[in-house]
Amino acid sequence: MHSVSLLIVDDHPVYRDALHQFLTRKFFSSGNQVFSANSIKEGLNIVRSKKSQWIILLDLLIPDSENQLFGIKEFKKLEEVVAIAAISGLEKDSLEQECIDAGCSIFISKSSDTFYIYQSLCNLMGISSTETELPQLTERQKEILTHISNGDSNKMIAYSLNISEQTVKVHLGEIFKKIKVFNRTQAVIKAKENGWV
Length: 197
Description:
With 197 residues, this protein is α/β, with parallel strands linked by helices. It has helices at 13-27, 40-49, 70-76, 92-102, 114-125, 139-149, 154-161, 165-179, 184-193, and strands spanning 4-9, 34-37, 53-59, 81-88, 106-109. A five-stranded parallel sheet has the order 2-1-3-4-5, sandwiched between helices. The radius of gyration is 20 Å and the shape is elongated. The two termini are 37 Å apart. The model has no long low-confidence stretch (mean pLDDT 88).
């Protein structure tokens, strides 16, 4: 069996590129390649041109789509496509069943966070989502991670937990080591990406 590749089809460049970068990073260790296209036509060409099986993450509102279900039907015609995940900013309740009936495996709302999208795609690919388990942090370290995710300063954390600022710094150093980051910003991003906070 060929490897499974992921194709993001979305005409909004900022959203598409951000999702592409995030998913490329997340799928790097499992060896699944991530591609992106800004139209259904470009997406179909990519699928036809590469020897792979495909999961398609398809935005329903694409300019070259005749209607909301057009892209689903076009990608379903290709035997290399193993599953389609529809993604849309439109109301899930009104669209989800239509998409499933048209051949989609799942419907994802654009308001979902990136970690939820990643987990949903892992489920479709039949691979486990790596790093979903929070590394072995103490209860105090988990509290501090939550505080920095809320934007609290060391001083505020020290006051709220009734410990010294120096103790907060020591805990932060330990947290960074355990979750393999170098600063607060990276810690917050990683914690949110993995659903730890």
